[in-house]
Amino acid sequence: MATRNGDYMIQNGRLVPFAEARIHCLSPAVTSAVNVFEGIRAYWNDEQEQLHVFRLDEHLARLDYSAKVMRIGAHPWDRDALREMVCDLLRANAARESVHMRIHLYVDEDGFMTATEPAGMFISCVFRPRTRQSMEGCTAQVSSWTRLSDNSGPPRVKSSANYFNGRLAALQARQDGYDNAILLTASGHVCEGPGACIFLIRDGRPVTPDRSQHILESITRDTLIRLAAEMGLPTEERAIGRTELYAAEEAFFCGTGNEVTPIVAIDGLPVGSGGVGPITAALQDRYFALASGRDPAHPDWRTPVYV
Ligand SMILES: Cc1ncc(COP(=O)(O)O)c(C=O)c1O
User: Fold this and answer.
1) Same domain, 145 and 262
2) Model pLDDT for residues 40-77, shown as the tens digit of each residue
3) Residue-range definition of the domain harbouring residue 8
4) Hey, whose CA ends up nearest to atom 15 of ligand 1?
5) Do 95 and 111 share a domain, yes or no?
6) pLDDT digit string (tens) for 5-49?
7) 167: in domain
8) What pLDDT does residue 85 have?
9) Based on the domain organization, do 121 and 140 belong to the same domain?
10) Domain at 146, CATH number
11) In a domain, 101, yes or no
12) For a 10 Å CB count at each end of the chain, is N or C smaller?
């Protein structure tokens, strides 16, 4: 099954046909990327005939934080309204398969870089099946581009403005024959991918950059740290040197979009055996089981759409 857009989106609180969603070309959202967002996923469960939105409340909390830091002005779309609209949109698109959604808050109409209003919003819905890379793994290149830092374009804020940095790294990697990129911080430590956090397995234990390493505070990262702990594998959160990438037994990207994507080679060197490692596979299995509700643990992480 190929990726395809849902027939409807929500814009400024109203259901609109996909082709009719619009932003003014002089809006600060376009001219200065005054635009924060969340990528979220909903997972279809065939047996239950149910669609579960994964960790919706945590995404909505992070959206609030990003809007606060970017000073997007007052708007009527609080968390309860957004939660309801996400489910309404999935029902309007008759979603009965797994879906990737975006919720954006931005400054619309014409205005300068410093404009804080009027706020606009949209929610989109794209049917997106699992990728080959999430099953077979991907290759990655340590980028020559440096990750943005907390004091310039704070990666902790999920702002569209930040994505030029990941774009440069991802395009360079693709041009050089790799599937994806790994960005280092200005001090040379491992940071994250263009749109995903990174974990290594070293000495049988998960290791991931700590939250002071200019990462996005990823909800998937948090999920996997908790799942690994439940599997008896406490995660080390710390600064990671570049050459640890080549010493790792396993490595994977994680994020709402990337889910758990094994990394099988870095800079042309195989990671471990060069295949999907056993800890990565076990974490990926548990992640999908929980997200889709096949595993009933952590019910507070799933918002059912059809009730
Ligand atoms: C730069 C970046 N890092 C990490 C992530 C993972 O964050 P999350 O797990 O909250 O989706 C994302 C988005 O998915 C991202 O864009």
Assistant:
1) yes
2) 999 999 999 999 999 999 999 999 999 999 999 999 99
3) 4-129
4) 195
5) yes
6) 999 999 999 999 999 999 999 999 999 999 999 999 999 999 999
7) yes
8) 98
9) no
10) 3.20.10.10
11) yes
12) C
Best CA proximity match to 40, nearest among 89, 107, 2: 89
Residues 154 and 47 in one domain: no
Residue 218 alpha carbon to ligand 1 centre in Å: 5
What SS3 class is residue 200?
A: strand
CA 256 to ligand 1 centroid distance, Å: 6
**From the CA of 23, how far away is ligand 1's center (Å)?**
24
User: What is the phi-psi region of residue 203: left when phi exceeds 0, alpha when psi lies from -120 to 50, beta otherwise?
Assistant: left
**How far is 128 from 9, CA to CA, in rounded Å?**
16
Residue 101 CA, ligand 1 centroid: distance in Å: 13
Q: Which one of 129, 159, 183 terminates a domain?
A: 129
Question: Which among 58, 167, 197, 260 is the best mutation to test ligand 1's pocket, defined by most ligand atoms within 8 Å of the CB?
Answer: 197
**Per residue in 105-160, pLDDT tens?**
999 999 999 999 999 999 999 999 888 999 999 999 999 999 999 999 999 999 99
| Whether residue 125 sits in one domain with residue 160 | no
The whole-angstrom separation of Cα 185 and Cα 177 is 23
Is residue 111 within 8 Å of residue 177, measured between CB atoms? no
219 lines ligand 1 (CB under 6 A): yes
Cβ 184 under 6 angstroms from ligand 1 = no
Q: Is 197 a pocket residue for ligand 1 (Cβ < 6 Å)?
A: yes
d(CA 179, CA 183): 14
Query: For ligand 1, is residue 28 a contact (CB within 6 Å)?
Result: no
